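Support request from a user on the community tier.

User writes: "When I paste my C-alpha cells into the form, the page sometimes reloads and wipes my input. The last time it worked, I copied everything first. Here is what I submitted, just in case something in the input itself triggers the reload:"
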C-alpha cells in the first residue's frame, strides 16, 4: 500500500531510542505521558482544524459513514480529553506519541501513516516565557539528537488580527489565477488557507503575498518581541518567517517550525481550541509535535550496545549456557545473544558475527569441569578465564571489569 511502511528491526530500534530521548527530556521538564485513542469523531477535526484546511478537505481517513476518522494529529484529541477528564483551569503538561494518519500524496519523508511525539502545555494563563520554554525544549531535544534544523517563528496574532489579515489577503488574491483547491478557498473567503497550498501553480502568488505584521495589535507585537528576546537570551537561533501560518485554524499568536529540508517539528499557541472543541473560551495552550520518521532519517546513533555472545561448546552444555545467559540478561545491562540450536562452534560464531559482540563466552565440558569459562574480549582478541560462579553471582560487576575505555 502506498504511503505506509514496515519498519524492520533496525529502524524500529532507532525509533525507540529517539522516542526514549524525547520521553526522558520532556519528563524532566515536567510533562506526563498520556495515551490517546487512534480513532476520534470526525467532527472534532472539522470544528478545530477548519473545513478548509488541507487535512480536513483531502487528507482524513474516514470510517463508518464518515462518523469517525483515524486521527490526523494529536492536539485536538488532547484538548477533547482535557475537557472530558480534567478540572477546568487545571494546568496540564502532557506528552503523547503514536501513529497519525493523513491521506497525503506519498513522497520522500511524507507518509500516510507516520509517527509523532508531541507535548501540550494546557493552561488558562500564559506568558512569553512559558511559550519560549516550550520552543527551547524542542530545540534542546534536536540538539541532543544532533539533528540540524532552522527554527522559523511567526505570530498569527489574535482573532481580530487574523480577520484583518484575511481581508488584506482577499484584496491581494483578487484577480490572481490559482489552483482549483485555492480557488475554492478564495470562493469561501478562506484566504489565509491559500497560504498553506502546496500546489505548484500557487507558489508565485503566495511568495509575494502581504505578511500579517501590519494587522497585528501592539499587544501581540510586544508579546512576540518578548518571545524573540528570550530565545536570543537563550542563544536559540531563529528566523522570523512572516509567512508561516501553520495550516490549521486552531492556531493563534506564536507559531513555529523546526525545518531541515522538510519540517521536523511544528507547533504553536492555540488559545481558541478549547472553545472550538467545547465551550471553554478561557482555556488555551501551546505545544508541538515532532515527526519521528523524518527525525529518524537524520539521526546517527553512535551509542554502541554492549552485547555478550555465548557459545555452547558441545550440545550437552546448552542448558548451562542458558543459565548463564539468563543471569546476565536479568542482572546486567548487557544484551545476550545465543543460539540454542546448531552444534558446531563455527556455526555459533557465524551467528554472533552479525551482532559485533563486546565479549564472547565459551562454555564446554572442559570449562564446566574447571569451573572457569573462557571469555574473549573481541576488541583485542584476548582470552581470559573467569570463574563461572563470579559471572553467575555478579554478572554486571564481573563483565564490566573487562570493558575497555
Ligand atoms: P504538524 O505540523 O501538522 O503539526 O505535524 C508535526 C510534524 O509531523 C511535522 O513537522 C512533520 O515532521 C510530521 N509530519 C506531518 N505530516 C507528515 C507526513 N505525512 N509524513 C511524515 N511526517 C509528517 C501537528 O500535527 C500539530 N498537532 C502540532 C502541535 C502540537 N501544535 C500544537 N501542539
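"...and here is what came back when it finally went through:"
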Amino acid at each position: 500500500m502506498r504511503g505506509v511502511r514496515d519498519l524492520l528491526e533496525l529502524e524500529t530500534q532507532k525509533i525507540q531510542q529517539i522516542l526514549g530521548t524525547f520521553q526522558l527530556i520532556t519528563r524532566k521538564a515536567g510533562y506526563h505521558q498520556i495515551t490517546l485513542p487512534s480513532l476520534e469523531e470526525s467532527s472534532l477535526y472539522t470544528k478545530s482544524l477548519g473545513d478548509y484546511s488541507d487535512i480536513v478537505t483531502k487528507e482524513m481517513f474516514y470510517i463508518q459513514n464518515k462518523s469517525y476518522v483515524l486521527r490526523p494529529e494529536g492536539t485536538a484529541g488532547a484538548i477533547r480529553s482535557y475537557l472530558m477528564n480534567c478540572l477546568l483551569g487545571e494546568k496540564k503538561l502532557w506528552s503523547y506519541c503514536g501513529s497519525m494518519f493523513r491521506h497525503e500524496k506519498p513522497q520522500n519523508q511524507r507518509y500516510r501513516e507516520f509517527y509523532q511525539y508531541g507535548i501540550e502545555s494546557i493552561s488558562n494563563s500564559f506568558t512569553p516565557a512559558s511559550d519560549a520554554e516550550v520552543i527551547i525544549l524542542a530545540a534542546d531535544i534536536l540538539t541532543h539528537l544532533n539533528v540540524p534544523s532552522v527554527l522559523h517563528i511567526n505570530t498569527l496574532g489574535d482573532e481580530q488580527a487574523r480577520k484583518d489579515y484575511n481581508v488584506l489577503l482577499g484584496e491581494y488574491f483578487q484577480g490572481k489565477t490559482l489552483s482549483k483547491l485555492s480557488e475554492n478557498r478564495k470562493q469561501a473567503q478562506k484566504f489565509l488557507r491559500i497560504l498553506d497550498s502546496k500546489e505548484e501553480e500557487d507558489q508565485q502568488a503566495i511568495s509575494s503575498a502581504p505578511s500579517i505584521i501590519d494587522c497585528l495589535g501592539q499587544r501581540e507585537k510586544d508579546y512576540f518581541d518578548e518571545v524573540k528576546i528570550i530565545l536570543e537570551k537563550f542563544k536559540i537561533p531563529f528566523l522570523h518567517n512572516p509567512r508561516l501560518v501553520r495550516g490549521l485554524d486552531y492556531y493563534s499568536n506564536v507559531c513555529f517550525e523546526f525545518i531541515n529540508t522538510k519540517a521536523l517539528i511544528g507547533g504553536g499557541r492555540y488559545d481558541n481550541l478549547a472553545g472550538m472543541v467545547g465551550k471553554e473560551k478561557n482555556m488555551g495552550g501551546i505545544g508541538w509535535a515532532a515527526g519521528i520518521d523524518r527525525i529518524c532519517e537524520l539521526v546517527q546513533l553512535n551509542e554502541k550496545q554492549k552485547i555478550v555472545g555465548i557459545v555452547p561448546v558441545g550440545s550437552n552444555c546448552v542448558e548451562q549456557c542458558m543459565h548463564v545467559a539468563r543471569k546476565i540478561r536479568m542482572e546486567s545491562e548487557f544484551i545476550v545473544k545465543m543460539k540454542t540450536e546448531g552444534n558446531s562452534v563455527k556455526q555459533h560464531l557465524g551467528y554472533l558475527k552479525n551482532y559485533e559482540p563486546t565479549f564472547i563466552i565459551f562454555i564446554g565440558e572442559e570449562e564446566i569441569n574447571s569451573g572457569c569459562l573462557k571469555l574473549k574480549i573481541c576488541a583485542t582478541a584476548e582470552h581470559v578465564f573467569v570463574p563461572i560462579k563470579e559471572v553467575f553471582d555478579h554478572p554486571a560487576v564481573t563483565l564490566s571489569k573487562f570493558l575497555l575505555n
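Agent notes: The reload is a front-end session timeout and is unrelated to the input. The CA atoms of residues 87 and 123 lie 11 Å apart. The chain has a mean pLDDT of 94. Escalated to web team.
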